[in-house]
Amino acid sequence: MRQPTPPLVTLSLLFTLLFAIALAASVLTKLWLASRQMRHVAAHRDAVPALFADRISLAAHHKAADYTIAKTRFGLLGLAIGTAALLGWTLLGGLDLLNASLLKALGGGMWQQLALVAAFALISGLIDLPASYYQTFVLEQRFGFNKMTPGLWLADLVKGTVMGALVGLPILAVILWLMGSAGQWWWLWAWAFWVGFNLLLMVIYPAFIAPLFNKFQPLEDESLKARVQALMQRCGFAAKGLFVMDGSRRSAHANAYFTGFGASKRVVFFDTLLHKLNGDEVEAVLAHELGHFKHRHILKRMLGLFGLTLLGFALLGWLSQQGWFYTGLGVTPNLNIPGVPGASPNDALALLLFMLAVPVFSSFVSPLMAHSSRKHEFEADAYAVQQTRAADLQSALLKLYEDNASTLTPDPVYVRYYYSHPPAVERIRHMQQLAHD
Question: Does this model's pTM top 0.90?
Fold first, then answer.
């Protein structure tokens, strides 16, 4: 008589199938979107949009189109490598083999779990290393954006790895300890710890971590400083300082941003931004950034992130107790029986599998996140237009689009799926409409 299929096997096979379908759908969607983007940009390469014809040269438009197509094509290579690595870690048994090897070498316990996550991160970093090098020293170099030397690139890599280990491993140890010791509500305690750490990081990052990678000098242009301070006072915003960052050491791309939290907030300008924009344009860009604070976009995004991570920790708390979650992703769970010598917890395995699987299923949520971000950008533009001249913000945006080789003719569907900022055409028309209202 035929034996019924064990429920665990059935659930495992169903989850494997669901994971494979979601992964295939995600990859095919990204391939389709990338092909649309490259075709659309190439089709509009030889004509500057009429709205920008008097400001953007055909040569600059060509460069933006070629840069966009090259980046998108390179992204397809990254997608292929990432998909292969994901399958290698999961269904092809890579994570299972790594875990078994470390169990044999170290036995069970906290050290084995920390070693598992550290080894996973190290191997993943090595897999990504050639692509990172190519992007910096071939792709960015070809279009004149790279300013890094191999020595600086290597120094950043070492600093980032050391900082990640010094900060990440203790945090990981606390979370793994909570998973094993705090009972069924461990995920709530772990989430609270994660939130507290992130709030602390926002306070200490500007003064202690960022200076490890870049130099920050007080803004010395007294005229610009007076204008910026007057704008911030007019907008009811206080910052601890105005700083210029040596972004030109690494890239020709320009930017400005706020960093910090509470009393530690500071305004940071890339030196490249100050070289490319005049005082009116810098003020307009800063007004846009102030608009994000005025509309509480940063707070809303932070609260949204904290809410999503709470759901994520709760889901991880449930999945970590399901055998099919491990076997469905190609991993044999450890024997985890309290009080039994030699038993080893599955906490690090659950954490790694969750980090690998969630992006596959959540990739289809990205259009919603992108839509919300674009809405915030329109609101920040509207605020900037109220505080400064619309013409100055438009001029600044066009200079930044040109200097960063951002295409003026992206594919509309690609925009809706990925873009966190509205395309230049939409932003300029929106500002023109505001100016006429």
Answer: no
